[in-house]
Amino acid sequence: MAERIILLPGDGIGPEVTEQARLVLVAAGKRAGLEFDFVEELIGGCSIDAHGTPLRDEVIEACRGSRAVLLGAVGGPKWDDMPVDVRPEKGLLSIRKALGLFANLRPAAVMPALVNASALRPEIVEGVDMLVVRELTGGIYFGEPRGREGKPPGPNGEKGTRRAVNAMAYAEHEIERITRVAFEQARLRRNHVTHVHKANVLDVSQLWMEVVDEVARDYADVELAHQLVDSCAMLLVQDPKRFDVIVTGNLFGDILSDEAAMITGSLGMLPSASLAEGGFGLFEPVHGSAPDIAGKDLANPLAAIQSAAMLLETSFGAKDAASAIREAVTFVLDAGHRSGDLLLPGETRETVGCRRMGELVLAALERD
Ligand code: NAD
User: FRET label pair with 138: which of 18, 30, 102, 122, CA 20 to 30 Å apart?
Assistant: First the structure.
């Protein structure tokens, strides 16, 4: 029976990279005896244009009836002036919440062929292979109370009274389930978890410390370290190799996973998975909709393609098919092919476009 996958290409380069990921998914899935039934839906700016909202309930229902979701990217200047609650990004926050996608997994590994693409020195980044596990449905992005009040400065020099508030709140069960995801992932990797916090000033972080320590008792084979978020930000650029799995809350994870991403050289290479309890997942590249290059066949589809690999592995247990995709990507890069975003400053080699990069990966997949 064909497995239903919901495609949410979204805005900007989203449709371009998602199409290449879909083609690779079909080819790699075949190797694992999987056949897919793709259903395309709208999210983000294109959904605002068509339906006046960034995410419709029907789309959430369609996702619930599927085995996995593959998303492109949302947003763009066209919708930048809209209020926060109806902007494209609201579609992303809403789908995470509606599907209970509490665990965001963001691997950041430096490929040997791209070791010079990082802003850091090659000897610092060579061999970096970490996974940031970010809590995605709690914390300050969702906490209550939230909002703004007061008046802006008046025309005759009156002082403004504006005030804004967002609250960081976490319940014990939210911390426990994300911590278990991190420890389970560490067991598949190098058995080390770093919990990132700000327990010297935040009550919320103190609760995280307690719960993480309690969960760690069930994982005697995994080493645990606690690290303050400010010093973690420094260590990530000073000695990134020391990290295996990082687990943290929504806000710190948002920032640190982008920092970790840049160590690898390009946003165009990085996949992600967002998982619910029971393992249901939404898979998407880390990058945004890149309006500056949208519609020009210039986007790097490798982040989306590697998100498809995570989908095969996580939603279908098709580890060999996922590895085949990663090996195909490595093969293409080792052969010297580059999209524009992977060029070093001053480098002048010929580049390949989005479609061609997808074709090269497909050809590499089918080479044996
Ligand atoms: P961005 O990731 O879209 O782009 C940052 C830079 O990286 C740009 O120069 C872009 O050309 C380049 N880039 C990104 N992905 C690339 C790829 N695959 N290949 C080649 N180059 C690539 O981030 P931004 O410019 O800050 O945001 C643009 C829009 O995307 C905004 O509306 C933002 O809100 C949205 N956004 C969406 C997501 C998402 O959908 N998950 C994430 C981040 C930003």
Answer: 18
